[in-house]
Design brief:
Length: 463
């Protein structure tokens, strides 16, 4: 089986298939020279315990039936069809490569507006965003549009004492930029109310406990008068929001707030002095509709009332989105561009049409897992469960003699074609050398590791 992507979805899927099918061989393809995907480049540097799953992934990679092939771009260095020709099955587990846009005036024109995904990738050392130069020194207020866990990650990194981050694996470049930051206040803005937020208890609790950082209390009208009938998780989260921060606004150096019932309308620039620099965001006020405004699924209506929030720094954090790989059409794979997922039967079997769930059989030997299967939501544990479910479908199909691809010897024969094309690949042993070099660099700085942010530098370790 070929696995496309080396993040949690790929590794958990590989692990389960290797466990469930005797002598199963898995080849994992990754476009970067290094593995682990979102665990390496998406998990916050101050959450090292979340990265412990890398130990399990390393255990999977140690199997003689597993091969890691890094630094290879499917659809560019090699075609998707050529990979499919060498395997019994292909598992698409490459995640979400771009963020969703707001689609409002000024978003693509003004300086000072960043994608939360880009910002997170930048401070985590993702090569794609190593050239990002966020200006955190132009004003004291930042606005984050969106109220999920990534939005709170951005807020926490902006507000946290930079010295507390110096021993993490955050890049030295990011630490230097954060040290010059003038941000004192972060406003995390959402279209709906506090009972509809997407972030989790852990994320908000961590922000509430930041030293010398105060939380602006939420107006009581936005919270339910009684917590008695709330589900356990909602009750705990609401209680946490009501209790607020350990620091008070009167004595804290920095602050943050959750601003509700505001929908962004447009980004505004300074009219005369700097016409290309963000100066403010205009929002339309919204209101919750329906019989129960505290229903987690409650919807909103946009009003004609507007509010403008001055800021020189804004982040959009309204979700990620997967994109199709070149060559999917040639294999009959349907990608649902509206939902940003590969069309599948909910168990991970690929379908050739969004209408084919009941009309035809799944595509033989084609599967998907993770965000490209169900959309970008949930934490790593959710991805693990989702990948296990897809792996169970692979195992069941194999045991039931369902149709698969024509098969082949996988990387053993395919690597000859890649070498003939001049494609330079990275093995697991090569990654371990890169890993050791990063740790050596980090040790000299008093931190766990200093990541290479340029693939060329990673490959130079191997030369």
């Amino acid at each position: 089986m070929a696995v496309l992507g080396s993040g949690p979805a790929g590794f958990y899927g590989a692990y389960k298939v290797m466990q469930g099918i005797k002598n199963a061989k898995v080849d994992m393809y990754e476009q970067l020279p290094v593995p682990f995907g979102l665990v390496r480049y998406g998990v916050a540097p101050d959450h090292p315990e979340v990265k412990h799953c890398q130990e399990k992934f390393t255990e999977v990679a140690s199997s003689p039936d597993f091969t890691f092939i890094g630094n290879i771009k499917v659809g560019q260095d090699v075609s998707l069809k050529s990979i499919a020709n060498h395997y019994d099955a292909v598992l698409f587990a490459y995640g979400a490569s771009r963020d969703r846009k707001l689609g409002i005036p000024g978003e693509d024109r003004l300086n000072g507006i960043y994608s939360a995904r880009d910002f997170v990738g930048w401070y985590n050392g993702l090569p794609e965003f190593s050239g990002l130069t966020p200006r955190l020194d132009l004003g004291d207020t930042a606005v984050v549009v969106g109220q999920g866990n990534v939005a709170l990650d951005v807020a926490r990194i902006l507000l946290k004492d930079v010295d507390s981050l110096r021993t993490t694996d955050m890049t030295d470049q990011a630490l230097a930029t954060l040290a010059k930051s003038k941000i004192k206040r972060v406003r995390v803005v959402g279209r709906r109310g506090p009972m509809q937020v997407a972030f989790t208890i852990r994320e908000v609790r961590e922000l509430m406990k930041l030293p010398s950082v105060a939380f602006k209390p939420i107006h009581h009208n936005l919270l339910p008068p009684s917590l008695t009938n709330l589900p356990r998780t909602a009750k705990r989260l609401t209680k946490l929001l009501m209790e607020g921060s350990t620091s008070t606004l009167a004595h804290a150096e920095k602050s943050w707030s959750l601003d509700f019932l505001l929908s962004p309308v447009r980004f505004l620039a300074t009219s005369s002095t700097s016409p290309s620099q963000l100066e403010a965001i205009e929002f339309a006020r919204t209101k919750l509709v329906g019989s129960d405004p505290f229903d987690p699924a409650a919807r909103v209506e946009t009003s004609t009332d507007h509010e403008t929030i001055p800021t020189s720094l804004a982040f959009r954090s309204i979700g990620y989105q997967s994109e199709p790989l070149p060559g999917m059409d040639e294999l009959g794979i349907h990608f649902d561009t509206k939902r940003g997922i590969i069309t599948n039967d909910y168990y991970g079997r690929l379908l050739s049409s969004m209408h084919s769930l009941d009309a035809e059989q799944p595509l033989p030997g084609m599967y998907c897992a993770g965000w490209v299967k169900r959309g970008p939501a949930g934490v790593i544990a959710n991805t693990m469960e989702d990948s296990f479910a897809t792996a169970e479908a692979v195992i069941a199909d194999w045991n039931n003699n369902a149709p698969f691809l024509d098969g082949g010897d996988g990387w053993e024969t395919f690597k000859k074609d890649c070498l003939a094309k001049g494609v330079r690949t990275v093995s697991w042993e090569d990654w371990l050398r890169i890993d050791a070099a990063e740790k050596t660099r980090g040790k000299a700085m008093g931190k766990e590791r200093e990541k290479f942010t340029n693939p060329r530098d990673m490959l130079d370790v191997l030369d």
